[in-house]
Design goal:
Layout lengths: L21 H12 L6 H30 L2 H26 L8 E4 L1 H4 L9 E7 L5 H16 L4 E7 H10 L1 H8 L2 E5 L1 H16 L3 H19 L17 H15 L6 H4 L5 H25 L8 H10 L10 H29 L10 H4 L6 E4 L2 E7 L2 E4 L4 H4 L3 H12 L2 E2 L1 H8 L7 H4 L2 H11 L5 H10 L2 H5 L1 H6 L13 H16 L8 H6 L6 H10 L10 H16 L3 H12 L3 H8 L5 H11 L2 H16 L8 H18 L8 H15 L5 H10 L2 H6 L2 H16 L5 E7 L4 E9 L4 H11 L4 E8 L4 E9 L5 H19 L5 H11 L12 E5 L7 E8 L4 H11 L2 E11 L2 E10 L8 H15 L5 H4 L28
Parallel strand pairs: 2-3, 7-8
Antiparallel strand pairs: 1-2, 1-4, 5-6, 6-7, 9-10, 10-12, 11-12, 11-15, 13-14, 14-16, 15-16
Helix pairs in contact: 1-2, 1-3, 2-3, 2-5, 3-5, 3-12, 6-7, 6-8, 9-10, 10-14, 12-13, 12-14, 13-14, 14-18, 17-20, 17-21, 21-24, 24-26, 24-31, 26-28, 27-28, 29-32, 30-32, 31-32, 33-36, 37-38, 37-39, 37-40, 40-41
Length: 956
């Protein structure tokens, strides 16, 4: 468990003496200045190393003490104290030796520094208060102090003003008002600071509480929007993100401004927070400061984003250890998200208290606006427990939940039916009544009926589930769900915590259910109204990842949870079996579509064997879409949609008995005739020559309209006398750009194409490799789109096509262009550890050996793997390239050079060993011998005679 502070954190509780010898520092500075008439630059140069060393030593000691006691608040207070002493010593030295008039100035801390807390890399916010009658020498004293702080490397936010100017500006500028609210004297004239604070209290704060509260809450909402409006982003911003330090400080500013308090403990005496809530506030503050201080210490800068590459180190420095099913970093991040959730609870509770006192109002407060805060309660039809208060649902009386705990679920059901917002008072009561959700309530038929009704609501089930989760109800009512609340997965694929992912999956399902996703998911949109077991689908979508974080496979463990949970929720035996199957198999459609060759009949036969019914196929398709959509922004794209639709249609054909039993030879003959008919405007001689170019695999797997495009492309290339050429087209719906390459055949052709794509920054999603009967290769590469506008994407595709041509023609050296790309791209993947894995299987295809590799992604990886396969005398027929964040799963359908499967076990073992070596970036002789990429013949040998061909695929 992480280290906890052992006593209350108040600044006067801490022994600061071990951080710095202040008297000794003062003496050293005096001695360094020596005579009074030294040039200013010399004086600064003399003081700088002394003060810098004192700062470095003090901060190092603070870091050491943080490792010992684990208290973030103490660390922040220690660093603030160190900063105070540096400024005091510097100010004293300046007024003694350089500018005596500087004694009349007040130096005060504002903002976060004013609260007496600083992170190692925080900005230093200072206010220099001048007397009304001030001189040039006073301003020069300020200037000297500022220059030295800048020389020491501090980022200083500063203002030099009179008391009158501060009061005038804070009346119109909310940022200045907030800064002065936290004003704290450091050194100099204390009387000026006292004068400012008493005038600020009387002339600015008095009577403006509601206005300040409204402005701060609006500012917070704006900040959340900018940072990503969820507290469950897996790389959170500790300072600015939802549930972070700034939210906590906003609460304190509001409390301080409205209730005129100095400490959060005073809010307990006022009855705003319970003792437990005040403790939660302090714990959250302490934890977030510990994380932030460790981040600054670790990175050596003001790093506020808890990114993957530092999470593991921060977890270790805070003392987290691994547990079964959860790594130390996942445990640390779960704690982080639970704290962020507590900050949300505290915000709600404080807002409820403010509303009781008619404090929160819209900006531009007037008497007319205040009137909306007078209580106007209305009955809600069919409900005696709840009433409406200005468009929000609240409790009819405080004893509702105690009398009937089922009302804790009913509250959200009625809110869903009426479309009312939730009153903060009611949410505060819910948070304080969570202990009433016990095993009796969980087994209550009415409570479960209400919950299922919320989950399958035709309105906005995701919204209500999120509110139940935020209030802590969902995790208590379904304890298995509670275990994944705030749980993150340490990878770059999942953008949200598990609970947020599951609720977002329900959001996606509701969107399809409402018919709002027709553009993105035409097939799912068409199928959804025909799905009979709608309730079973909603339950499966909500719980498909409910067993994450356990030692066993989460699909199997989740199916076991589903078997127990579904009857409790009121599902019958048939529905329960359906949910169990969907949860257990929820990954199969996605993995088959993305990592298998969908033109291979065995892929479809194996998948159909597992699905077995059209009803299950429909449900699985919709669940798969919702799951991928909810992973994070940008994860779903049209290419994945196209793959899923292809798999659905092929499987539907198989399950409904429409799968053709004709032999490959017979089907290829029909395909030849179709192509000839499509080229009816060609001369018979040209038509015959073109049709003869293609072997069976091409004719059976490429749609006839694409065959016609390829035919024109080949004819134009031949007419131009080019040895190689590329053709580009893009498809915005499928989110894919297709590059077709015609070149003399070569064992390493795919490797060189992949390397050229990597050098151009393109991600290959899929590759189809065909050989023509005249010894050329016709390879089609699908790359993920980058631009929304077709013209922009076509220009990008053209650039990538030219890169491929230049590398093939030897105009550019492949190792060099890949190296420059890898250097330019910051590799975030180094934070992750994925052991390289390679599998060779003969059971996944009737004609090909399937080689599947899984490892950490990096620039140029595909080029290296395909080069290794060529070196191993393997011929690649097709490739599926799938990236899941930092992890890549590449599947290759291969044969040996005579078109047979690789059946020899020694050879299979050799393939696996060689691929693992490539993935682990181990040097070997064959890799070193990788050519520059020259495969295009010289113009004199344009017939391709001197090029080593891959094997003919006529017999495949």
């Amino acid at each position: 468990m992480a280290k906890q502070a052992t006593r209350q954190d108040h600044r006067h509780d801490i022994d600061f003496s071990e951080l710095m010898d202040v008297a000794g520092l003062q003496t050293e500075c005096r001695e360094a200045l020596g005579t009074k008439d030294r040039p200013l630059l010399e004086s600064r140069a003399a003081l700088l190393p002394i003060l810098r060393q004192a700062s470095v030593d003090g901060r190092e000691k603070a870091r050491e003490l943080l490792s010992q006691d684990g208290s973030g608040l103490r660390c922040a207070r220690r660093i603030s104290w160190i900063q105070d002493q540096l400024i005091c010593v510097l100010n004293e030295t300046i007024t003694e030796s350089l500018y005596p008039e500087g004694r009349e100035i007040a130096v005060a801390a504002t903002g976060g520094y004013g609260r007496g807390t600083l992170a190692p890399g925080s900005d230093i916010d200072l206010l220099f208060l001048l007397p009304e009658k001030n001189s040039d020498a006073m301003r020069k004293a300020v200037e000297f102090l500022l220059y030295l702080l800048w020389d020491m490397g501090f980022k200083v936010g500063h203002a030099t003003r009179t008391v009158e100017e501060c009061i005038r500006l804070s009346k119109t500028d909310m940022t200045i008002r907030t800064a002065i609210l936290e004003c704290r004297p450091i050194c100099g004239s204390g009387a000026l600071v006292n004068q400012l604070m008493s005038r600020f209290d009387l002339e600015v704060v008095a009577g403006t509480g509601p206005e300040f509260v409204a402005a701060k809450l609006a500012e917070r909402d704006q900040r959340h929007k900018k940072a990503g409006d969820t507290r469950y982003l897996v790389e959170p911003n500790v300072k600015e993100g939802k549930g972070g330090l700034r939210d906590l400080h906003t609460l304190f500013w509001i409390a301080k401004y409205y209730y005129r308090v100095r400490e959060t403990t005073e809010l307990v005496k006022l009855g705003v927070l319970s003792r437990e809530e005040a403790r939660s506030f302090e714990k959250a503050d302490d934890f977030l400061w510990a994380v932030r201080c460790q981040m600054h210490f670790l990175t050596g800068k003001a790093e506020e984003r808890l990114s993957f590459d530092i999470q593991r180190d921060i977890a270790a420095s805070l003392g987290y250890n691994a547990r079964p099913g959860l790594s130390s970093v996942e445990r640390f991040m779960k704690h982080y998200f639970l704290v962020a959730k507590n900050v949300g609870d505290l915000t709600r509770i404080l807002c409820a208290a403010l509303e009781d006192q008619q404090a929160k109002a819209a900006p531009g407060l007037t008497q007319r606006v205040i009137s909306r805060f007078t209580k106007r309660l209305h009955k809600i039809a069919g409900s005696v427990e709840f009433v409406e208060d200005r468009g929000r649902i609240t409790l009819a009386d405080p004893g509702v939940f105690k009398r009937d705990p089922v009302s804790l679920i009913r509250f959200f059901h009625v809110a869903d039916l009426t479309g009312l917002e939730l009153h903060p008072d009611a949410l505060k009561s819910i948070t304080r009544s969570l202990s009433l959700i016990d095993s009796a309530l969980r087994e209550d038929d009415e409570a479960n009926r209400l919950f299922l009704s919320i989950l399958t609501s035709r309105r906005d089930p995701g919204l209500m589930l999120r509110r139940m989760n935020e209030a802590g109800v969902l995790g208590r009512f379904i304890p298995e769900f509670g275990k994944v609340v705030a749980m993150m997965q340490f990878n770059m694929y999942h953008h949200y915590t598990v609970d947020e992912h599951l609720i977002r999956s329900v959001d996606a399902l509701s969107e399809i259910d409402h018919g709002r996703a027709a553009d993105m998911h035409p097939l799912a949109n068409k199928l959804m109204p025909t799905i009979e077991e709608r309730a079973a689908l909603y339950v499966a979508v909500l719980i498909h990842d409910i067993a994450k974080g356990r030692q066993e496979d989460h699909s199997i463990a989740g199916a076991r949870i589903a078997r127990k949970l579904c009857p409790r929720l009121g599902l019958n035996a048939k529905q329960t079996e359906l949910v169990v199957w969907l949860v257990e198999q929820h990954l199969i459609m996605s993995m088959t579509a993305q990592t298998r060759d969908l033109h291979d009949r065995k892929t479809i036969a194996d998948f159909a064997e597992k699905v077995r019914s059209l009803d299950r196929l429909k449900l699985l398709l919709v669940l798969t879409i919702c799951d991928i959509r909810a992973v994070g922004p940008g994860v779903w794209n049209g290419w994945k949609g196209q793959l899923l639709r292809t798999l659905y249609y092929e499987t539907e054909l198989r399950l409904s008995g429409g799968f053709s039993e004709a032999s490959g030879k017979e089907r290829a003959k029909v395909a030849e005739e179709d192509l000839a008919n499509a080229l009816s405007d060609w001369s018979e001689q040209d038509r015959e020559a073109l049709v003869k170019l293609h072997y069976q695999p091409y004719l059976l797997s490429v749609p006839v309209e694409d065959q016609v495009r390829h035919a024109s492309f080949i004819r134009e290339t031949d007419k131009a006398g080019k040895p190689l050429a590329t053709m580009v087209r893009t498809d915005s719906f499928r989110a894919i750009t297709e590059i077709t390459v015609l070149a003399p055949d070569h064992p390493r052709l795919l490797s060189i194409i992949a390397g050229a794509c990597a050098a151009a920054g393109a991600n290959i999603a899929d590759a189809q490799i065909f050989t023509t009967s005249d010894g050329r290769a016709l390879d089609t590469i699908h790359i993920n789109r980058e631009f929304a506008v077709d013209d922009d994407e076509m220009r990008r595709g053209g650039t990538i096509g030219r890169m491929i041509e230049d590398v093939l023609a030897g105009k550019k050296r492949l190792p060099e262009v890949i190296a420059s790309r890898a250097k330019a791209k910051k590799n975030k993947n180094k934070a992750f550890d994925i052991p390289p894995s390679a599998i060779v299987s003969n059971g996944l295809s009737n004609k090909f050996t399937v080689v599947e590799v899984e490892c950490l992604d990096r620039t140029g990886l595909l080029a290296e793997i395909t080069a290794a396969l060529a070196d191993l005398s393997l011929d690649i027929q097709s490739a599926r390239i799938t990236t899941f964040g930092e992890k890549v799963i590449d599947t290759f359908y291969v044969t040996d050079l005579v078109g047979h499967k690789v059946t020899n076990e020694n050879r299979q073992g050799n393939i696996i060993a060689r691929l693992k070596a490539v993935m682990a970036e181990q040097e070997d002789e064959l890799q070193e011998a990788m050519p520059d990429g020259i495969v295009a013949p010289q113009p004199a040998a344009a017939d391709g005679a001197n090029v080593l061909p891959r094997k003919s695929k006529a017999g495949v």
